[in-house]
Design a protein that fits this description.
Two copies of one chain form a homodimer. By secondary structure, chain A is of the alpha+beta class. In chain A, about 30% of the residues lie in helices and about 25% in strands. In chain A, the strands form two sheets. Chain A has a six-stranded mixed beta sheet, sandwiched between helices.
Chain lengths: ~325, ~325
Amino acid sequence: MGRLSEGAILRRILDRLAPSRAEVGPGDDAAVIAVDGGPVVATVDTLVHGPDFRLAWSSGYDLGWKAAAVNLADVAAMGARPVALLVALAMPDDTRVSFVEAVADGLRAACEALAPGCAVEGGDLTVSDTLTIAVTALGALETAPVRRSGARPGDVVALAGAAGEAARGLGLLFARFRDPEGTPVAVDDVLLSPSERDAIAAQLRPHPPIALGPAAARAGVTALMDVSDGLLLDATRMADASGVTLALERAPLGPDVDTALTGGEDHALLATFPPGTPPEGFRAIGVVRERGNEAVLVDGVPYAGRTGWDPYRDWDSARG
Amino acid sequence: MGRLSEGAILRRILDRLAPSRAEVGPGDDAAVIAVDGGPVVATVDTLVHGPDFRLAWSSGYDLGWKAAAVNLADVAAMGARPVALLVALAMPDDTRVSFVEAVADGLRAACEALAPGCAVEGGDLTVSDTLTIAVTALGALETAPVRRSGARPGDVVALAGAAGEAARGLGLLFARFRDPEGTPVAVDDVLLSPSERDAIAAQLRPHPPIALGPAAARAGVTALMDVSDGLLLDATRMADASGVTLALERAPLGPDVDTALTGGEDHALLATFPPGTPPEGFRAIGVVRERGNEAVLVDGVPYAGRTGWDPYRDWDSARG
């Protein structure tokens, strides 16, 4: 399985499942399901100790925060407002109750900070050798759900939220907080500059701009998704889904353009809007063109480097 | 954490979370969440390799089936009709794609057999050292949600579905299909009587009576829950939530009353109805009385034995 991409595996699985009856089925940031009375946005994402987080680096609070944030972002990426989380926590039998309480504190704090009105409404606890948290987020729509397939030539490409900060933080953790064998060790803030602390905080406790998802929908956004695997890779997915080329510019992406283009896990919102100034909170980073040979261009040319981060291909869980 | 019950841990966690805004929050079989337009029933349950299933005994198909069935039962236990599943699958990097396809086949088959109209509408794949499947089920209500707290003195206690079959099957697996070190080995059907095969099938691929959940709600059921941890333990929970005593009878519970009373994982539906004959598919197993000293009586006396199965207390994951 390690040789297939997550997308390839998903296609194999989807072939086996019954045809989706949902308004939006598998393949977007979240599903939109018709429940008597109205559409419900629903998504699930799992964090696993090893590939997704390390307890040497993440506290229980950090883990709860991040598990909430990444799922809230998938709801926002449909233009929806998160209304509830369900949390499935599987943990070793010797886990301290205080750790579980800290996870709960992080879940609550992320909801209050990022999506006021959303709370944990259900859950499940099980024993597992591998600490795992699967969060389901449910959301409500004031508008039609926003797909990633609606970008049209002439639209402005815009971004809300950080680009590259979380990846920079992960790089610092790998470079500076591992022992000689590669095993993660606790972060010592004294060894970090303020900017480095911010980057590590962005990795451990990301702040995706949740409220800007429904705001973009109200403002007429044509396509929307959250950037989890890197701007270039996710922009390629949006371009392919929409049948267009996204022509990005380096200038608005800050001083470290390569990290901004390839770094994942910020859960920024990538959007396309009709021509004009994008709504408050979004910054223009390019334009949508008729589909050419490339899905994504950067300053007019294909990007010469790796286009993103596929957790199945790139992460060696034995490392560190 | 191993010394605290799941209930005790949940109470500690719930104290840390924001007050529920849901119509039905944590503490029942599923949450009922108001999404613009109407209530949505939502629940999540996780199966972990080791404590919840063994690959020597369960195929990928079995695992998909069971993961769907147990969550469909939680939706049905609110009187709701399941409409969608989200599946978070975490698996070792060397998992074969054919195994994942078999999980998908089992999920689909369980939905088609137990809850026609319900399908997998979203999901997430991650790498983990421990094979884990967390399924979220969403449901729609035609009636008010049915709590476990509505049983009233004079009501009939009724059961739909198997009682003790899944536990009998698990007992057979432990007794007959482990090597001398206690490690599970593949089931050989030739060694089993037809009745034993049925019991093992009930453990690996349970058939909870999903359609009878909404049917009970239409028929005026006063309290409803699914029996996951054993009839006595779950009846105690219903009695405590309702402030009544459930007076059960041994006679309707079949030849192996002790297994019927204490065995978990059949996901039968335990219900109370106003006096009279319970609706089709339910059999009367007792009556509701004013609350006495005991939450549950069996033929008029407290049950002299263990009252159920708490996965946190009773399962030694190192065993087998």
